[in-house]
Amino acid sequence: MEVRTCLIVDDSRIIRKVARRIVEGLGFEVDEAADGVEALTHCGGLMPDVILLDWNMPVMDGMGFLKRLREQPGGDRPKVLFCTIETAPERIAEALGAGADDYVMKPFDGEILQSKLSEVGAV
């Protein structure tokens, strides 16, 4: 069976740990990044199948990362789920407009995450 990869990009170690447990339970191999710059560096070496992306982070936020990712060779391939506390409809529209595949509200659980990953065809 093909190994699916997921990059979790969040400045909160706790959120990364929770998300890692869920995603590994769905059969993904997981890497983590604490900000958009770290995530871009990772994607330059190995483009993941799925990216769980926080919006508000230091150094480079989720939106900055997403725009740069989509400009990279192969950067159109990963399914990107914004995982954030941003709830305003215009922010969600902005994320989807910038190339996010879907949107997950924090806090999320395994069921929500699995359902969203399923909707975008990642599981």
Automatic annotation (TrEMBL):
SMART domains: REC (SM00448). The modification 4-aspartylphosphate is found at D54. This is Two-component system response regulator. The lineage of its organism: Bacteria, Pseudomonadati, Pseudomonadota, Alphaproteobacteria, Caulobacterales. Residues 5-121 form the Response regulatory domain. One of its GO terms (biological process) is phosphorelay signal transduction system. It comes from the Bacteria. The keyword Phosphoprotein applies. Keywords: Phosphoprotein.
